[in-house]
């Protein structure tokens, strides 16, 4: 059993990682700036409310901990280019500072949530493996790559055991309404509220969608896995935005007619991740098929539609 600090553990993905860590028998502390949007605090979990950018808060949160899962981010791809300096300060500088505080506290294991959709830039391969060149076209992706490089440096110089998971496009219960990252949640919430769906571009953009339960299970396994480095984490399969629209119509049992808008410059046309490396290293594989996962999201939205505090 490990005592794990989940930084950003009240967010969409972080909250599922907390569940998986508890299910795998770990002790969990969460550091986040705010409580979870959809659930009360969990019994048995220790919550520290504050920022991981604060050294004092980190010292408190790291006490007695032997591993960290770092899920916090102050930006998403679509917001990061508006203020790259804030992106660098809030994500890169704060993470590099956290590495120093972890070293001082003797915490030598870190699982970091990187981004398979942005670190490679515009892929030159049908299916992208970890050896593909890193050429991000958003500040968000550049910062993720820079953090991965600092993790490598910290490993070489100070023995940090790190796993950077280059996450594809997660979806599932607790994905918030605002939808600035995550089209499946965004589309399903909009359908539930009777609002129109907007598609950037012609809907041919292809992404690799992974159910958040599958990814959270991987993170919890990664905490105790004796491996180091950067690993893709997706389903290994692609679906176009138009296919997601169709699947959304199917699970919501209604006809959806999206509004097509001009494409966005930071959206890469196609990313499907090769996940052989992590499968082989950890013996993990995603299990939830897309349509079944979307049905779970839809059912969850039906149960939570009335909640005022939609993230
Ligand atoms: N959602 C996606 O599509 C996606 C895809 C690839 C990678 N990622 C990465 O996964 C991670 C989690 O994403 P998510 O979708 O769960 O985001 P989220 O916004 O739902 O969760 C992030 C959490 O971090 C917290 N946080 C932000 N800044 C903080 C700070 N300074 N100190 C403490 N807590 C802070 C937020 O309050 C929030 O609860 C991020 O690193 C993101 O870049 C997400």
In short:
This protein has 311 residues and is of the alpha/beta class.
Describe this structure in words.
The chain is α/β, with parallel strands linked by helices and 311 residues long. The chain folds into two domains: 3-170 and 209-233, Rossmann fold (3-Layer(aba) Sandwich), CATH 3.40.50.720; 173-207 and 238-304, UDP-galactose 4-epimerase, domain 1 (Alpha-Beta Complex). Helix content is 40%, strand content 17%. It has ten helices and 13 strands. Helix 1 crosses helix 7, helix 2 packs across helix 4 and helix 4 (84-105) runs parallel beside helix 5.
Computed structural class: alpha/beta
Report the strand count: 13
Low-confidence stretches: none
Secondary-structure element sequence? EHEEHEHHEHEEHEEEHEEHEHH
Cα end-to-end separation: 32 Å
Distinct ligands? nicotinamide-adenine-dinucleotide
Major β-sheet annotation: 7 strands, parallel
Number of domains: 2
Helical residue percent? 25-40%
CATH topology of the largest domain: Rossmann fold
Question: What's the topology here?
Answer:
Blueprint: E1 3-7, H1 12-23, E2 27-32, E3 46-49, H2 55-62, E4 67-70, H3 77-80, H4 84-105, E5 109-115, H5 139-158, E6 161-167, E7 169-171, H6 183-193, E8 198-200, E9 206-207, E10 209-211, H7 212-224, E11 229-233, E12 239-240, H8 241-252, E13 259-261, H9 276-282, H10 290-304
Bound molecules: nicotinamide-adenine-dinucleotide.
């Amino acid at each position: 059993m490990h005592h794990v600090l989940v930084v950003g553990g009240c967010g969409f993905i972080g909250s599922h990682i907390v569940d998986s860590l508890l299910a795998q028998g770990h002790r969990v502390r969460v550091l986040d700036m705010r409580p979870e949007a959809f659930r009360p605090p969990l019994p048995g979990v220790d919550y520290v409310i504050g920022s991981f950018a604060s050294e004092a808060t980190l010292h408190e949160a790291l006490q007695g901990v032997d591993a960290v899962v770092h899920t916090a981010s102050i930006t998403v791809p679509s917001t990061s280019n508006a203020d790259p300096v804030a992106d660098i300060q809030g994500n890169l500088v704060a993470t590099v500072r956290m590495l120093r505080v972890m070293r001082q506290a003797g915490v030598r294991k870190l699982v970091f949530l990187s981004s398979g959709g942005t670190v490679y830039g515009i892929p030159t391969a049908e299916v992208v493996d970890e050896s593909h060149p890193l050429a991000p076209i958003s500040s968000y992706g550049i910062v993720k790559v820079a953090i991965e490089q600092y993790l490598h440096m910290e490993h070489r110089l100070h023995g940090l055991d790190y796993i950077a998971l280059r996450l594809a496009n997660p979806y599932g219960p607790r994905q918030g309404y605002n939808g600035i990252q995550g089209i499946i949640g965004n589309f399903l919430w909009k359908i539930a509220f009777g609002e129109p769906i907007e598609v950037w571009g012609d809907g041919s953009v292809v992404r690799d969608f992974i159910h958040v339960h599958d990814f959270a299970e991987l993170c919890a396994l990664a905490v105790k896995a004796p491996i180091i480095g950067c690993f893709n984490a997706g389903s290994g399969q692609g679906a176009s935005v138009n296919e997601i629209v169709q699947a959304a119509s199917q699970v919501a049992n209604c006809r959806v007619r999206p509004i097509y808008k001009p494409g966005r410059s930071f959206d890469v046309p196609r990313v499907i991740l090769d996940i052989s490396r992590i499968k082989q290293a950890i013996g993990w594989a995603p299990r939830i098929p897309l349509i079944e996962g979307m049905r779970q999201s839809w059912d969850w939205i039906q149960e939570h539609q009335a909640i005022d505090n939609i993230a």
